[in-house]
Amino acid sequence: MLPLYERNKTSSLKVDIPETLNTVHIYSRVSPKFPEGAIFTPPTANNKVYSNCIQEYRVWLLVRVVGSSGSKQLVAGFAGFVSATGYKPPRRSTIDYFTPINQPFTEYSVIKELLKQSEEATMEVGQEYVLNTFDLGGCMKALLLIWKFPDEYEKHVVTPGPFHTGMNYMGMVTAHKCKGSGYAEILIEAELVTSGCLEGVLKGKAYAKALFCLKTVSEAMERLLLQRFIEEENVEITNPKALFDLVQTCSRENLDLAQKDPSTLDILKKYEAYENKVRAGHLGKTATFGLSDN
């Protein structure tokens, strides 16, 4: 076990000669073992959470269009909208620091020590499961340890961080699903990227650019679909007060009121039905592909 140092107000950490962890080797890798006949299904509560998020996204899209005034946009982008209407955590997070380990992060010995210290910290607060978040390299090493010694790490849950999760998700969407669909050409024609960084954007490696491009193109496609929906279905907002209030002040209170407003709910219900028509081929194969889940 590495020594612990008390926290102080000095700007630098002066430690003794660092200890070296014992080398750990895994000679035969194993895969995760699941009970025979095990079936994995997401909790039913996830469906409700997902539906609520989709509805909030549609409300944002609606007020984004309603709040457009020429070249001026009154409603923030989706990230800003979520920040303005999101819930504040009930308490501040507690952050603590452990003694630095002066060895490469991807060594099994380092990962094992991190899992051990995390388990001890978890036991101190009376938590049953040990939750660890690593980047992709650390996650791969930690999972191999857990799969190799399942009894020792039966209470450990390891997940990749949001950065690598988002990066790989965008790579699967833009570099694989959208390959040959014209997505890359849209980015070039719209001058969102140059040919030099296009490959990194499509693979999600250029994270900031990839995220910006995906948000921009997704909103553009949604706006085109919403415009077609309004034209074909002759949609009229009978009582736009709730939407206008949300446009003027993006807050959780106004968002909740908009989601309860009968006029808004009627439009969202019709729009959802229209999306299902498009998925069934109403606007051709390209639109069907754009709304497909696979």
Low-confidence stretches: none
Bulk shape:
elongated
Strand segment count: 4
Give the radius of gyration: 25 Å
Largest sheet, strands/sense/barrel: 2 strands, antiparallel
Oligomer: single chain
**Percentage of β-strand residues:** under 5%
Description:
The structure is a single chain. This protein has 294 residues and is mainly alpha-helical. 54% of the residues lie in helices and 5% in strands. It has helices at residues 44-66, 78-85, 108-124, 136-148, 162-177, 183-189, 198-203, 207-233, 241-248, 252-260, 262-279, 285-291, and strands at 68-69, 72-73, 130-134, 156-160. The protein has a two-stranded antiparallel sheet with strand order 1-2. It has a two-stranded parallel sheet with strand order 3-4. Helix 3 (108-124) packs across helix 4 (136-148) and helix 8 (207-233) packs across helix 11.
Feature tags:
mainly alpha, 294 residues, 12 helices, two-stranded antiparallel ribbon
Nutshell version of this structure?
54% of the residues lie in helices and 5% in strands. With 294 residues, it is mainly alpha-helical.
Give the helix/strand layout.
Layout: H1 44-66, E1 68-69, E2 72-73, H2 78-85, H3 108-124, E3 130-134, H4 136-148, E4 156-160, H5 162-177, H6 183-189, H7 198-203, H8 207-233, H9 241-248, H10 252-260, H11 262-279, H12 285-291
